[in-house]
Amino acid sequence: MPMKLPFFKNKKTKVKEETELDNIPEHVAIIMDGNGRWAKKRGFPRIAGHKEGMEVVKKIVNTAVNCHVKVLTLYAFSTENWSRPKSEVDYLLGLPKEFLHIYLPEMIENNVKIDTIGNFDVLPNHTKKAIRYAKEQTKDNDGLLLNFALNYGSRFEIVQAIRQIITDIDSSKLTLDKLDEHIFSEYLYTTGLSDPDLLIRTSGEQRLSNFLLWQLAYTEFWFTDVLWPDFSDEKFKEALHDYQRRKRRYGGI
Ligand SMILES: Cc1cc(N2CCCCCC2)n2ncc(-c3ccc(F)cc3)c2n1
After folding, report:
1. List of residues 6+ apart from 91 with CB closer than 8 A
2. Which of 120, 154, 187, 236 has the fewest CB atoms lying closer than 10 Å?
3. Is 35 annotated among the ligand-binding residues?
4. Which residues are catalytic (predicted)?
5. Shortest-distance Cα residue to atom 14 of ligand 1
6. Has the ipTM of the complex gone over 0.85?
7. Comparing C-alpha atoms, which of 25, 13, 98, 33 is closest to residue 64?
């Protein structure tokens, strides 16, 4: 008597339809590079590139909202940027106030929550005042988290984390045996945030420039020659679609 094999009900297995929203990267990080080059190509002063770049920030934020991205981290000012001419540093650190003066109402309307990572305290008072107000005005929003990396440097962030861990171990707030990757990540500016799923860098450069060195360990990188002021919602969606293609498993594991 042949062994009776189990049989499956002749039910039509539901094929999961891939949708536009499948495999959307939850956290997208962007190195917004190429602003100076954009201005130079046009015979404009460098600050014209930064100004145009600020307008693109607003466009890409709206696109990220519409594409259901959950966190958007933008590298706006690095610790290395302090070495630029004072006039350019002053202009750059005036952009947060200018951006928020124009676009904060629209950010609130779109349920965007604004936050920052980086060494905030040493920024100019006018910059801090504008950003503190925006953080307060958006603190209860639960839509896109718009996270500006301001006066951010990853190596500084990692050294600060190590210093604090040593302090906490010395004061018995932490014991060495409890220290692992998860506990370490809680000492970084990005504590509580998931690591970026997708990193976009514009202007053709293919390096990290001291950005999120710990957090990008498993992140997909997408590079484009397009200069940030020329970046568009079409290019942003191209990056998202490329990410979706990489993550598609066609029913496999
Ligand atoms: C320093 C800096 C530079 C800056 N650029 C424009 C984008 C291209 C890259 C550099 C220049 N942008 N663009 C938006 C902000 C900003 C920051 C915080 C905030 F709460 C609201 C807006 C910004 N901040």
Report:
1. 47, 50
2. 120
3. yes
4. 33, 81 (proton acceptor)
5. 54
6. yes
7. 25
Backbone angles phi, psi at 239, to 5 degrees: -65, -40
162: helix, strand or coil = helix
Can you list the domains of the chain with their CATH numbers? Answer: 22-153+195-242 (3.40.1180.10)
Side chain identity at residue 207, one-letter code? R
pLDDT above 70: percentage of residues in the chain: 91
Residue 18 tokens read as: 């891939």
Residue 248 pLDDT: 77
pLDDT digits (tens, 9 = 90+) for 88-141: 999 999 999 999 999 999 999 999 999 999 999 999 999 999 999 999 999 999
Q: Which residue has the higher pLDDT, 221 or 5?
A: 221
Task: Give the H/E segment covering residue 181.
Answer: helix 181-185
* Tokens 């106030």, residue located: 97
Residue nearest to atom 19 of ligand 1 (CA): 96
**Residue 177 CA, ligand 1 centroid: distance in Å:** 40
Pocket of ligand 1 (CB under 6 A): 32, 35, 50, 53-54, 57, 76-77, 92-93, 95-96, 99-100, 114, 131, 134, 148, 150, 228
> Among this protein's residues, is 66 annotated catalytic?
no
